[in-house]
Amino acid sequence: MEAERSGRPVFAAGTTAVRRDVLRGRVWAAAPHRVVRDSGRELVLAYWPGIESLAPTTWIEWLGSGEDAVRKQAIPNLARGQWELGRWAWRDTIVLSWFGADPDFSVHRYWNADGDPLRWYVNFERPVRRTRIGIDTFDLLLDLVIGPDGSKWEWKDEDEYALGRRLGLIGAAEHGRIERARERAVAMVEAGSGPFAQEVAARPPEVGGPVPVLPPDALAVLA
User: Rounded CA gap, 108 and 154, in Å?
Assistant: First the structure.
C-alpha cells in the first residue's frame, strides 16, 4: 500500500487489494484481486481463474448444482443475518474491474481464458469504503449486462433486487439513488465513456506471477 491520499489508502500496482461485501458489520464475501492501478479516486483490479475467495455457501452450492432456488435462498439468508462462508476458487473468466467511476456502481470487463472478450457488467452497490486491505461495499443485487462491443445491453436480476427491497435490504432512499444510477450507467454505456472508453479494456490483464491471496484478517471489519 502506498502513502495515503486525503486519509485514504492508495494501493501500489501489483499488490493485493481485497474486495469485500459487508452487511451490518459482517463480511458476506471476500475476494483478493491484483491492483492494476490506483489514482486514489479510481481503483482498477484484476481477477482470474484459480484465485480463492470466501463466498456464501448457498452461492457455492448453486454453482455446483445449478438449482436456482438454492441461489435465491441467499437473499432471505442475508435479510435474516444467517449465512455461512466457504472457500471457492474463481473459474473460467478473467475480469478487469473499475471502482470509483461512479459512487453507486462498479464496472467489470470479462474475457474467457483465451483472451476473447465476453461481456461487460455494471454492478450496482453501496459506495466503496477503503480499508488497509482493500475496499468494502455491498452488492445491491442488480446488474446491467452489456455485450462485448458495447452495442447491446439488458438488465439482470431485477427480481432479486425487488426481493431485496421487500425484505428490507434496500430502503427507499437507497432505491432512489439506484434509480438515478441506472440512468447514469446507461448513459455511460451509450456514450462509450468512463471505463468503456479506456484502451486498457481492449485486452485482458496480465495474469502471471503470484496469485492474490486473502490475508489472515480478511473477515475482520477494518476501519
Answer: 15
